[in-house]
Amino acid sequence: MERVTAATTPKLRLDDLDAEQAAAVRAPRGPVCVLAGAGTGKTRTITHRIAHLVSAGHVRADQVLAVTFTARAAGELRNRLRELGLGGDAGQVQARTFHAAALRQLKYFWPQVIGDVPWRLIDSKFPIVAQAARGNGLSTDTDSLRDLTSEIEWAKGSLIAPEDYAAEAARLHRDAPYEASKVAAVYAGYEAAKITPDGLYLDFDDLLLHTAAALEDNVAVAEEFRGRYRCFVVDEYQDVTPLQQRVLDAWLGERDDLTVVGDANQTIYSFTGASPAFLLDFSRRFPEATVVRLERDYRSTPQVVSLANRVIGAARGRIAGTRLQLIGQRPDGAEPVFAEFDDEPAEAAGVARAVGKLLGNGVPAAEIAILYRINAQSEAYEQALTEAGIPYQVRGGEGFFNRPEVRQAVQALRQAHARDDIPDARGANLVTLVRAVLRSKAGLTKEEPVGAQARERWASLMALVQLTEELAAQHVAADTEAAGESVVGAAGDSDEDDQHPTAPGSHHPADESGLDLTGLLRELATRSEARHPPTVQGVTLASLHAAKGLEWDAVFLVGLADGTLPIQHVLGPDGTVSDETALEEERRLLYVGVTRAREHLQLSWALARSAGRKGRRRRSRFLAGLVPDDSPASRIAQHTTDRRGPKRVLPGCRICGRPLLNTQATMLGRCSRCPADIDNGLLEALKDWRREKADELSLPHFVVFSDTTLTAIAEQRPADDRALVAIPGIGAKKLQTYGADVLAIVRARSNASD
Ligand code: ATP
Ligand code: MG
């Protein structure tokens, strides 16, 4: 990416653009539409176009309004404008979300339009929707309210009034939480309840509606506004809702100074009412528009680009008809890796290992992302990264243990634990008990509920049940392991746990066999406390929806099993497709995911949800024909998939030789129960050195080496380069940068103790 220092005048560099991009940038004032695939420089083109229009004197910087859809995307726009010398100060280009722009305008125009009626922006629709639901005899539980709320948001985004809702919902086959007439009644009740004698309550959609109306109905307001803003730019235009389009039309009036860029094949927000039709019909609406198509992909290696082309090549329907073959412009890179795992924990551990390897090779953590379909999938990855000592941040959502439904569920388990009439359930019985508590106290249902929000919540609760199953199974495994150890006499002092803290999820002594509720709650607490606080320099965990428009050097697309991507509810009970349109949106999500990667891309899936289960899943139907026969996926499958038992080819413990079962153990090269032959003095010396080094290079400490890697060094005391790179987390780049220092410290320490 180019780096241009900020200045007060635009620093336009037309050499940084290819011929088509330059054509869009140089097009005269008037409508311009860039229709292009991922990574072809659409965002770059609009920022340069703004710089061009300003430097050529067509428009003043403060007369430009650039809008997009999410706060993160608006931030990205501002950053890129800043690089072109169009900083975010007053008197500069405004780059905002639709909502933020509307809020500012409405504040300004309200007195003129509405007078002195006070108004307030509501923080949450929930209480008002609840009131309306109650008034219509509907449930006010959280799931029901969330689904009603998203249905109201969809209707408002689609400019469907309460009285038209029922007809439109039927026409569009909405997957609504209740009968359409009931939803319509709640919607009408919700709208009415916001008008009170003390003033008006507005939600985010009302901001847009009122802004449009202020300009449509008031000549003076429209004139003042249109005198102020003359040039409009929209990024990610495929995601515009009819409501946002109406605002845009109101801004424009009769004018046509509008540049839009988008990729219909990245439409992934249809559930909010967004539609690519506005993008695709742009040149019909503005026949004189300059229309540019971009095909060169500057973001990704040709290997990634080729996979992206094949993923979207299989798409069907009108949107798919608009796709263009992307042509990779970067030097060759590695082929995308496909990896199949026995179960989800193994997948997460495998991904964490691969992330550790990249970090060891010098790829910065902030340049690595793990992307999944739904937020509940983050749990396994948060855990695996925590165990590996790798910092991360969860984007566009909270970490697993901070989600309201998970907190509520854990609280319910604690309360159950405090009661004395709860049976002493262990092992499989504990799983049954947990399910029962979550059913009665946290609203876990047997079947997956209807509605996006309820599904997310349900998936989080199911993830907690699954975690219980895994912990119970691990507990049995650890007991067996402990028994084996006492036979060979390798370890086993009763105070071993104190001397060598065990990894989360491993054995805790119990006087009877099987994990019980006390043990489970302790495990959950340990896990949630062990989680790293969010750090911007960590690996990104994000849903595919939150990843749009962004890019990373390395991307891991995980959970690519049928039923996760595509998500279950677009499939019929027997795996047939129940909703073609929705299936195509799922395919576009995979396309968005693939195209986030600059260089490294790994796609993985698991055959079973949890360890020890029969592998009934199959990889995503979108991968059909894409996984090469000689792919490591086949090799991994051969190694790890033995339906008859837990025979796996996994790295072994350097002390007892048994397979290593979790990421931290793999990084340390020994299982948690084997004695840690650590030289604590050496560990301290290494940490001191790391602190100085990190400060000197202005890097966060973990970027130099993670705690786990330093621990592994202090345990294994490598004597030469070869021994050093054998430690996970240390690759060629780290060896080159820090190898000599580290080996000198190890040597000095062993000389001192000789
Ligand atoms: P998306 O559809 O994912 O939003 P996009 O079309 O907006 O992608 P950009 O993010 O603008 O693409 O560009 C992708 C990457 O390619 C960026 O890192 C950008 O700086 C780089 N790039 C774009 N055009 C060029 C060019 N002409 N020369 C060199 N690099 C370029
Ligand atoms: Mg973009």
UniProtKB/TrEMBL annotation:
ATP binds at residues 36-43. Pfam families: HRDC, UvrD-helicase, UvrD_C. Residues 302-549 form the UvrD-like helicase C-terminal domain. The keyword NADP does not apply. Residues 15-301 form the UvrD-like helicase ATP-binding domain. Residues 478-514 are annotated as: Disordered. One of its GO terms (molecular function) is helicase activity. Residues 676-754 form the HRDC domain. It catalyses: Couples ATP hydrolysis with the unwinding of duplex DNA by translocating in the 3'-5' direction; ATP + H2O = ADP + phosphate + H(+). Residues 481-492 have a biased composition (Low complexity). Keywords: ATP-binding, DNA damage, DNA repair, Helicase, Hydrolase, Isomerase, Nucleotide-binding. This is DNA 3'-5' helicase. It comes from Nocardia acididurans. The lineage of its organism: Bacteria, Bacillati, Actinomycetota, Actinomycetes, Mycobacteriales.
